[in-house]
Design goal:
CATH class: Mainly Alpha
Order of helices and strands: EEHHEHHEEHHH
CATH topology: Arc Repressor Mutant, subunit A
Distance between the termini: 39 Å
CATH architecture: Orthogonal Bundle
Strand order of the largest sheet: 3-5-4
Structural class: alpha+beta
Number of strands: 5
Shape: globular
Length: 183
């Protein structure tokens, strides 16, 4: 069921588990009164972009979040499904699109030729202001865990990130199937 959300600058019809995140972001920038508790994936995405400055490519960003969640235990609740380039989350992509619509992140499309596009992700000035407030509310152990994991992951090329994410997903799916079978 679609929800309509209106801020003084934005009107969105949005079907997602992160309807409340839209409200939270609008509230954080002073357009509404209070911030609800709950899903903080959007805040963690903004924090990730603050720490990395920019992320080149959707694939790279998706693999960062998957590995942060599954390998390093960073608190993301996105559900990932197997995909050609490794684990993919529709909800995460919807959140990225929403953050772009709200002018909190910039997603620049770069043509690499022959119909190949690269999506470059970075914070906008408005996003930088919002993430400062969000960062204050995130426990220091989560911030430290995020920074440490990102320092390790950012050194990997995208193909290595894909390989690692696919391997981990294959391992996790194998374990869950065995668990379902009671083995």
């Amino acid at each position: 069921m679609p929800y309509e959300h209106k801020c003084s600058r934005y009107s969105l019809k949005y079907v997602s588990h992160n309807y409340y995140a839209i409200s939270a972001i609008c509230r954080r920038v002073g357009e509404e009164k209070e911030t609800p508790r709950g899903n903080h994936d959007v805040g963690m995405l903004l924090l990730l972009l603050k720490y990395l400055k920019r992320v080149e490519g959707r694939t790279r960003l998706q693999k960062f979040v998957y590995l942060l969640k599954e390998k390093y235990g960073v608190d993301f609740s996105y559900r990932f499904m197997p995909y050609y380039y490794g684990p993919y989350s529709n909800d995460m992509q919807s959140d990225i699109d929403m953050l772009s619509l709200l002018d909190l992140i910039k997603v620049e499309t770069i043509s690499l030729g022959q119909g190949v596009l690269l999506y470059d992700h970075s914070l906008t000035p408005r996003g930088e202001k919002v993430v400062e407030e969000i960062e204050e509310g995130i426990p220091s152990n989560q911030k430290k865990k995020l920074r440490s994991a990102l320092n390790e992951l950012k050194t990997l090329k995208t193909d290595k990130l894909v390989e690692n994410a696919k391997g981990l997903m294959k391992q996790k799916l194998g374990e869950s199937i065995l668990k379902e079978l009671g083995i």
